[in-house]
Amino acid sequence: MTHRRAVALMVLVTLLWSIAGVVTRHLDAARSFEVTFWRSLFCAVSLAIGLTVLRGPALWAGLVRADRVLWASGLCWAVMYTAFMVALTLTTVANVLVTMAIGPMVTALFSRLFLGQRLPLRTWAAILIAGAGIAWMFGAEAGSGGSLLGSLVACAVPLAGAVNWILLQRNSESGPKAPDMLPAVLLGALISAAVTLPLALPLQASTHDLRLLALLGSVQLALPCLLVVRLSRELLAPEIALLALLEVLFGVAWAWLGAGERPPASVLLGGVLVLGALVANEALALRRQSLAETLQ
User: Fold this and answer.
1) What is the distance between the terminal CA atoms of the chain, rounded to a whole angstrom?
2) CB within 8 A of 23, min separation 6: which ones?
3) Are 255 and 22 a contacting pair, CB within 8 Å?
4) Is the peptide bond before 202 cis (omega within 30 degrees of 0)?
5) What is the pLDDT of residues 48-63, one digit of tens each?
6) pLDDT tens readout for residues 166-178
7) Which SS3 state, helix, strand or coil, does residue 67 take?
8) Which residue from 107, 180, 196, 228 could staple onto 37, CB 3.0 to 4.6 Å apart?
């Protein structure tokens, strides 16, 4: 897979992730932990069917003998699935998004500490500019209210994400004998559903809600998470985290188009900063790759 195609697929991943907010706006009765439970359950069902088709019965035998790194990644996925939805019920969307914007910085630091990766200056600059853009987009809204507990819960998302990207990166560097990490996405969904079920009772979701939550579990969660595991072989962990910030921009656009939430000027200006940083970083990377190929 070329770097350009990997970046394009990562953009698709963020586009799929970003529909969570606008879809949950249209739920009738499901709230809080019930939303998390149904989304994770539908994700687990979708993954169980898809991975069984791809891997056959060996999938389930492999889960029984799962390596520690597979379980560690599964726990990271479970934390990400659960904390994001729970945080949205405790504080404003703006607070959650601002908190998640620390993801690229945390991932870059973890990559330096645990993988010994030296990131180019352009990537550090893109991380800082994109983070500033996100803060500009939602700073005023985040400061106007919201729960400290919700923000603390939201912190679990970028922290678990950073650990997960490092695990996937290290595993991809282990060679042909490295364990298959796709089942970790299934493990994460199963753990999330099991943990949130007792907290979701009594279940109140309507048939309309279940249709929307099935869409979230399969299209918004299962498919993009499988894709990002594959892309961890092609993109560095900080680059994945940086491109993931597009989820914020797409989420704002979906809310505008699908829920009538018109973004203020600060959101539009901040979005320009984020997009500019991402485009500049990838353009410089492609230029450097082209120069290297020419010299060879």
Assistant:
1) 19
2) 212, 215, 216, 220
3) yes
4) yes
5) 998 898 888 878 877 8
6) 998 888 777 667 7
7) coil
8) 196
